[in-house]
Amino acid sequence: MKKSVMFSSEVQEQTVRMVVEAHGRHESLWAAIVSIAAKIGCTAGPLRRWVRQPERDSGQRQGLTTAEARRIKDLEREVRELRKANEILKLTSAFFAQALGN
Asked: Is the pTM value of this prediction over 0.85?
């Protein structure tokens, strides 16, 4: 299985700028993305998401902004933690109820 490579945000931003600059030299944005992706050693899919995210952040494209996605992720983490705490409280309550009942 191929290990995924993580690119820093600086590399992502620079790569997006490269795609925007190369767009005029290619027949389509997708062709520019494929060309640049091959040069930096990633697949075209993630690079396309990097290119589209600033469009979503500025309101030019529909979808979650970076801030909205981060907020959802934080809320999902909080829900998981609260569910765990709730389960612990239920188990503790049942334990003490049983201990006091005997």
From this structure: no
Between 101 and 55, residue with greater pLDDT: 55
Whole domain around residue 72: which residue ranges? 65-102
Which DSSP string do the residues of 66-83 spell out, in sequence order? HHHHHHHHHHHHHHHHHH
Q: Are residues 46 and 82 in the same domain?
A: no
Tokens encoding 70:
């981060």
Whether 3 and 50 map to the same domain: the answer is yes
Coil, strand, or helix at residue 52? Answer: helix
Cα–Cα dist 45/33, whole Å: 9
62-101: per-residue pLDDT in tens?
999 999 999 999 999 999 999 999 999 999 999 999 988 7
